[in-house]
Amino acid sequence: MTSETAEGRRVIPVTVENEMKSSYIDYAMSVIIGRAIPDIRDGLKPVHRRILYGMWEMGNTHDKPTKKSASIVGHVMGKYHPHGDAAIYDTMVKMAQPFSYRYMPVEGQGNFGSIDGDSAAAMRYTEARLTPLAEGMLDDIDKETVDFTPNFDESTKEPTVLPGKMPNLLLNGSSGIAVGMATNMPPHNLREVCDALYTYIDDPGVTVDELMHKIPAPDFPGGGVIMGTAGVRSAYLTGRGKCVVRGVAEIEEEGKHPRIIITEIPFQVNKANLVEQIANLVKDKRIEGITDIRDESDKDGIRVVIDLRRDAMPQVVLNQLYKHTPLESTFGINNLAIVNGRPMVLGLPALLGHFLDHRVEVVRRRTEFDLRKAQERVHVLNGLALALQSIDDVVAAIRASKSAEDAREALITRFGLDEIQANAILQMQLRRLAALEQQKVLDEREALGKEIRRLQEILSDRTHILEEIKKEVAAIREEFGDERRTQISVAEGEISKADLIEDKPALVSLTATNYIKRLPLETYRQQRRGGRGVIGMTTKEDDVVTDVFVAATHDYLLCFTNLGRLYWMRVWDIPEAVRTGKGKAIVNLLNLSGEERVTTIIPTRDFEPGRFLFFATKGGMAVKIPLEEFSRPRPSGILAIKLKEGDELVDVKITDGKQDVFLTTRKGQSLRFNEDEIRSLHRNSQGVIGIRLRPEDCLVSLALVEKDYLLTVTGKGAGKLIVFDEFMGHHRGTMGARNIRPIYGDKVVAARAVSADDEIILMSTSGIAMRTRVSEISIQKRDTRGVRVMKMGEGDQLVGFAIVQIEEEN
């Protein structure tokens, strides 16, 4: 509804909501179409297109001297892009950077910035010109191959798109943020793009997988390694995907210290920032083992040298660099481009198809232009040939005319020529009257006749146009094709936590109040039997160490509690502590209930079928369950076995289902029987009687008969080796035989199978730890008291030992 004011003006009521919506949509489309998103046909945004066209218009081609950048920027800004010189120059600088563009459209002379983020010199100091490949994008632009539109002030015209012989959007990619959408397209290898385009021309129905035989992945200007092609395939299929790119690094272990040499970094990563970030991670101790970082890069390429400590694991450090720095980066692919004035997300076949449609149109219009010019020239040559045949009459007619207009009319009237032909005769030079020159006219007419027939044949069918495009593609491939720079890895590049941690043995200890600690195994040096030991753990008052074992940092830990429940964690989850540290409360690592405590921890690497967990309880019960039933961890834990009221889980061992087991009580009774006497049950089973106990006795240890000896130790530091053959096999449910005769008040704390070449680490309730060889302990018969294996202080008690396998020295 409209109204008029007193002055006669029309007033149209408009709601603010509708006006904002309309204006914002107009603004958004202006940004999308006219600034941030490239055109599918030439792969360029308006500013890039205007720079290339302006340089071509200035004659700033590769075969001529470079021109001052300020001159180029001024020309482009004055005629085509009135948005400020900084925007134009920054864009041109990037087009001349070999680390930004896979195939540079602009050749720069002077300081055009660096991969370290250094800015280019001012435009008055630098010079530039087009590269040969960029000129190919402008070929035939003067043959009416593309539409032109008035510039910003309508003083001249500019092309709406460049002819482009190759899909530049695939070759160099593009990135831009518009309103509500963004594009991020990676560059590709020219040879591979040519091969894919060739394949698409022959078979427009080609699949993405078939095209990936030609274009397996993007090809970044700085090289690197693409880790897996699953995300790339998704991008080629749907237009969106992820491409994980790693830098190239080599490990050198020659000399005193190992080194990591970085020679390539991922696309769009600032090298100086990368080096600074590595240094900060080393300073914050998030990455250990690095002693020095040097950037030795020069004009020949990137070289970042990282010196490591002698004892560092280079591959672990490199994996940490991949994990925590841009040395491994993810390129999020979003193939958004302008298609027929609309933004669209496109897969690889669509990208090739739309470009091909554009190129077919360009070749068609170019051919029509060439045909028209050839026909016009033949028409002129026909007039010249006719004049040359009657040259005397033509000369006489011209001489008899009073003016050029009269001469033109005389030629048209007497010889049946049109105005164009008459003008050509009047402009003809006298030297064309020579016999040789007359023959040239006839030869040119004949050659043009052949060319006209060829052009007409091209226009007669789309297939012929496609053949012309294939010839151009082959020529470009031959002239500009180069080798792929970015390597492709068949494996996905996700860095797991295991890749960041060195897999090495560690000593794990657990206290009665469930404090757990991990220490490097080399913390404890070997001592002879009866030694005093060193402080292995500082415990809280009234706390004692109850279990120690050796496991690799990559092992799974099956943590069984006194209530028969099972929890999972990895050895690396336990914080590494100093030798005298008390460790970390395990309740902070596992989701334990109020009265629950961990009594047994089993290290393992896998949960393969054919292995079992053998459980023994304080009340002498035994249960056997397949290991694979415990392969699916839950944060809240699972119920492993069912316990009788008042009973507790004592120990768990991994078996193969055919081993002899050895149960030992606190009072020194031991029972040996084969585990096949106990059938395999499912998780949460109660089991059967393993060993029958005397009054006030309880089970303290479970061992497997898998080595030469049984090592039994008591709380007061006594211990002995017994050959397993000393014990005859009995059936389960019996009391067994005497193992050791503890002195008054002493009790058995642990009994395990050992070999003579093993080492053990003994630990006391006060945290004293001692490492010694098994061969230092004497072999004795049953029913003896043993020898002192560790000297105990007043009030101190031995709680157990861990077995360490001796590594052979090189």
UniProtKB/TrEMBL annotation:
A type II topoisomerase that negatively supercoils closed circular double-stranded (ds) DNA in an ATP-dependent manner to modulate DNA topology and maintain chromosomes in an underwound state. Negative supercoiling favors strand separation, and DNA replication, transcription, recombination and repair, all of which involve strand separation. Also able to catalyze the interconversion of other topological isomers of dsDNA rings, including catenanes and knotted rings. Type II topoisomerases break and join 2 DNA strands simultaneously in an ATP-dependent manner. Residues 426-486 form a coiled coil. The active site is at Y125. This is DNA gyrase subunit A. It comes from Methanofollis aquaemaris. Residues 37-500 form the Topo IIA-type catalytic domain. Keywords: ATP-binding, Coiled coil, Cytoplasm, DNA-binding, Isomerase, Nucleotide-binding, Topoisomerase. It is an enzyme of class 5 (isomerase). Its EC number is 5.6.2.2.
